[in-house]
Specification:
This protein is of the alpha+beta class. The chain has 5 helices and 10 strands. The strands form 2 sheets. An 8-stranded mixed β-sheet has the order 5-3-2-10-9-8-7-6. It has a two-stranded antiparallel sheet with strand order 1-4. A hairpin with a 5-residue loop joins strand 9 and strand 10. The chain is elongated and about 65 Å long. The relative contact order is 0.18.
Length: about 270
Amino acid sequence: MGSVHSETNPLGKTSDYPDQYDAGLLFPIDRNESWKAMGDDRSSIQFHGVDIWNGYEVSWLNGKGKPIVCVAEFRVPASSPFLVESKSFKLYLNSFNQATFDDASSVKAVMEKDLSAAAGGPVTVEFHGMDYSYPEAPEAVCIDDLDIDIATYTPSPDLLSVKEGAPFDGWLCSHLLKSNCPVTGQPDWGSLYVHYSGDEIDQAGLLAYVVSLRQHQDFHEQCVERTFRDILERCQPKALTVYARYVRRGGLDINPFRTTEETFEALNFRLQRQ
């Protein structure tokens, strides 16, 4: 297990791309590290969830030396103690490019074993062909056209409020999500989907809150968990799901899903910008 700012963290450093399979390239980071750095504790938040990673540059060689190419879907349980640093994940996947395997099931078994060991929880892997059709995005009310004044670009939970006596049950979304990598400071762009049941959340306040993450530096997973916690504490909904669909970088996109509902399925839909 490594630290965000460890010398062994490959993020932000020049790396040689491996041509031999190497599980040791995976770099796990304690999910609670950034929470502790802010004087907080992740264990204070109760949720169910998963991190869905899509790998668009997954390949290996079959027994005759012919390349096999596919899109991979990785599901890492939010209950796992570690997240996998994204650049190390990319380097790990690239280490399969010149490795030979008898069949796809053998590759799947190796990846599930390695990623589960790194995350400290059961990771599942599915391969999709080039003709795979992703599920449609949920029908949601987009709040991006609201005419609001923006005064802050750092996380501000006090922007969140509800309209008492005005019930709401459905999806809201914003495509204005942006946060920054905690190591390199590079921007991470995405879309935020919120399924909300309870007194209606003030949509202008929610949009201002989403924009307030614009200069925040943290991993995708922590940004979603922070948003989930802030909405839960400030608005006290009957049920809440927060789902971010981040734009891919380095052939990977990361899509953290957090919910109060144990049986709420995380559909791996795909937006045009992804």
